[in-house]
Amino acid sequence: MTRKPPPNPLITVLGATGTGKSKLAVELAAKLNGEIINGDAMQMYEGLDIITNKISPDERKGVRHHLLGCIGLDDEAWTVAKFTQKALGIIKEIRSRGRVPILVGGTHYYVQSLLFRESLIDTESPIDKANSTANPAGSYEKFNDPILQAPTPDILERLREVDPVMADRWHPNDRRRIQRSLEIYLTTGARASDIYEEQSHRRNIGSNNIEDKDNDQYPPNSGGDIVLEGRGASDIGVLEAPSRNRFQSLVFWIHAEHKILKPRLDNRVEQMVNDGLLSEVESLQGYLESQADHGKVVDQTRGIWVSIGYKEFSSYLAALASGNASEKELKSLEQEAIEQTKAATRQYAKRQVRWIRIKLINAASVAGIIGNVFPLDGNDLTQWTDNVELPALNVAKDFLAGEPLPDPAEMSPTAQEMLVPKRDYDLSDRRDLWVKRTCDYCGKVTVTERDWERHVKSRAHRAAARKGVMMMMMTAGTPAAPETR
After folding, report:
1. Are 219 and 120 in contact (CB under 8 A)?
2. Are residues 278 and 417 in the same domain?
3. SS3 assignment, position 344
4. Between 91 and 188, where is the model more confident?
5. What whole-number distance in Å separates Cα of residue 34 and Cα of residue 91?
6. Model confidence at 365, in pLDDT bands (50, 70, 90)?
7. What are the residues facing 248 on neighbouring strands?
8. CB 242 within 8 A of CB 206
9. Has residue 21 been placed in a domain?
């Protein structure tokens, strides 16, 4: 039987930071006549090569890269909608040259938006492109409403007025998610909670695996197929429509156990410092000061300003600017910032894996392409060729030739476990689990049942609860029971 190569293939390489995604993408592109599309939100900013850990020109080995260093500091931060539109156009260009598009990056909600066909609210488009039925009055408040730049409690209060369900969904300090939920209402007149409800219904009744015919634009808004785009480098709550394959996709997931990855990430931060991280941090601070001198306010809640490796140095930069700190104090603050950068990088790697396990694997399962997701063992770098490069290259060649693919569960000892979603649901589909609670003893706010259960089992809560009970007993005049050992 003659097999046909996929007419619109897309190869994707994903995984936690520090696992070698860029390296594998270059190796595949060099051998498969490919070009690479960057899917890391921070690496899209021009300059700042150290902070964003861009692949160097030498490491690119002559392979053409797209969407690297394409956003200036003076430019508006990209939404996931804008990224997807740009990437779709680039993919079309790459195919027109007879080459293979290879997507690589760690901003996994960007990756997911490209893999699966989902209509998005593009807040940079004219408002009349939005669903005309969302606002019965036919009028919309402006997207740049001043309330979006107000203090977080004020934004939350406004959100509570228009969408109390979403106001209770987020932690009161989660500015970006609160801001984004209100932003959706102001843009479309539709409440984000209603969008969640509609999309959950659409997903539950099933979806078809449909590929875009043009692959370079979003399908018309169908009145409910909406997804909230991310803002920054963290996992921030995408509203997912039914997953439908945008392309015939092959996905490689390079995975390394966290205990193995941890020293790698720490060493990388140290190398970034040696390569001049502090100079880039100070250059960013200098840009902020120059903007302030011209009366311009920079939104530091999104884009490069929330990148790991800059915000951790705020105390150091403040002390440096004051001119009052001694060399010893500056050195101490610098070392503290470096340690914070290491910790933040490790936490980010965990969040990336969690996104893959909970959201992307779920989406791939729903779309019926879980058989095209191949975990690769990135634990032992000395075995990179045998464990990562050659298996990926062989599978990719079969994929591009239209040959049957091997069982992904046999790619590594842990592959079978990795391909099972960490949860059998996506939290965005389970509105019944959005339960906000405030601990009477600790004052801690949780927004899901699982978070609450985790909190009440914590050592800190138990200690606070014991102390609270003793205080209440003393106030009531009841002698506290002696502690038993």
Report:
1. no
2. no
3. helix
4. 91
5. 11
6. confident
7. 9
8. yes
9. yes
Same domain, 226 and 338: no
Between CA 376 and CA 156 the distance in angstroms is 43
Range of the domain at 453: 437-475
Phi-psi domain of 329 (left: phi exceeds 0; alpha: psi -120 through 50; beta: other): alpha
The C-alpha atoms of residue 347 and residue 278 are separated, in whole angstroms, by 21
Domain count, the chain: 3
Q: Can you give the pTM of this predicted structure? A: 0.74
Residue 42 lies in a domain: yes
Ranking 304-308, 320-324, 358-362, 387-391 by mean pLDDT, the lowest is 358-362
Task: Residue 45: name the closest of 67, 69, 66 by CA.
Answer: 69
Residue that has been written with the tokens 């209402």 in this structure: 185
Query: How confident is the model over 218-249, as pLDDT tens digits?
Result: 332 222 233 333 333 333 334 444 447 889 99
Q: Within 13 Å of residue 176, how many CA atoms lie on the same side as its CB?
A: 18
pLDDT digits (tens, 9 = 90+) for 284-336: 999 999 999 999 988 887 789 989 999 999 999 999 999 999 999 999 999 99
Pairing type for strands 248-255 and 437-438 reads unpaired
For residue 177, give the amino acid letter.
R
Mention every residue, 6+ apart, whose C-beta is less than 8 A from residue 67. 37, 38, 39, 44, 83, 86, 87, 90
| Distance between CA atoms of residues 413 and 416, nearest Å | 8
Quick one: tokens of 419? Answer: 């391909």
List the beta bridge partners of residue 13: 104, 252
**SS3 category, 455:** helix
As a whole number of angstroms, the distance between CA 245 and CA 365 comes to: 11
